Amino acid sequence: MIIVLKPDITQKQVDHILDRVRAIGLKPMVSKGVERTIIGVIGDENRLRTEPLSIFPGVEKVLEVTAPYKLVSREFRPANSIIHIGDVSIGGKKIVTMAGPCTLDCRENLFEVARKVKKAGAGVLRGSAFRPSSAPVSVQGLGEEGLVLMREACDKCGLKMITEVMSINDVELVAKYADILQVGARNMQNYNLLSAVGQIKKPVVLQRGLASMVKEWLLAAEYIAAKGNTQIIFCERGIRTFESETQFTLDLSVIPIVKQYSHLPVVVEPSHAVGKWGRVLPMALAAVAAGADGLILEVHAKPEESLSCGPHALLPRNFSKLMRELQKVAQSVGRDV
Ligand code: PEP
Ligand code: MN
After folding, report:
1. Ligand 1 and 132: CB distance under 6 A
2. Which residues have C-beta within 8 Å of that of residue 25, sequence separation ≥ 6?
3. pLDDT of 13
4. What is the pTM of this model?
5. E strand spans, the chain
6. pLDDT tens digits for 29-45?
7. Ligand 2 centre from 74 Cα, in Å?
8. Is 185 in the pocket of ligand 1 (CB under 6 A)?
9. CA–centroid distance, residue 238 to ligand 2 (Å)
10. Distance from the Cα of residue 314 to its chain's centroid
11. Pairing of β 124-126 and β 88-90
């Protein structure tokens, strides 16, 4: 249920409604928009049916939300949410690019990539210290040592830091270093992890599961939001289909769909889906043309030495080329890079 408040409502009247909602055992979540403030009510809404909330002073209307996800829905917040991380904003006019290696390896490679992607216009450095390898014999990541290295590279180059968190035991540790936490595709429905990242005060990029429907993805985000963290960014990264020419089928059709249902930003990570570096650029451009708010791209100083994902890693010079091409596409759809 959503309570839409009148523009001239007083704080005392807001507090009165919040107290009432809490008193009947439900959780109110306030969303302050430019024109309107809205209160989302979480819990068993049947308890509200006997409560005449629509006649409380300052209430404009009470709406029932039919979708099972509420806090992440457009009904709850009609305007686009913009997520601010210092001088980087995701969901505004500017397209945000997050670039860097797949698995963190050595200092030299990381710092070279960080310097070069910054110069080419990236706002965020990506890299895995905890890596969700499909095979246990594959590289698993440097752990905290990698987080320390990445933080240093970000601070030195003026980049924000995104890295994956795979376990609830590591959420605090990763949040200590990173500006943005990533929940990977394989963990999209790990509800304990979603609840844990819902309790931190840092943005979370939520990868779409390998075979997840849009509704399941939105509900996964709702798990995070229900714990109080609404700084969520959806990331389309390709889904499993019958096609074997690609690693995954990059489903760009979800961009307008998710934006219709949710107020949250959507970014696209084309690298793993296309699987080959030469195919990354066209799909990155297509994603932005289709309305993506940002891109995540794998870039490595020496792809042939990369511990994972070498075949689709861009060289820094190819990343720079992509950024130049992106400028034209972004401008044509009213965005900046
Ligand atoms: C990654 O970004 O390195 C990654 C493993 O992504 P995904 O969870 O989408 O496979
Ligand atoms: Mn990778």
Report:
1. yes
2. 43, 44, 47
3. 95
4. 0.92
5. 2-5, 27-32, 37-42, 59-63, 83-85, 88-90, 96-100, 124-126, 160-164, 180-183, 204-207, 232-236, 266-268, 294-298
6. 998 887 789 998 888 87
7. 32
8. yes
9. 13
10. 22
11. unpaired
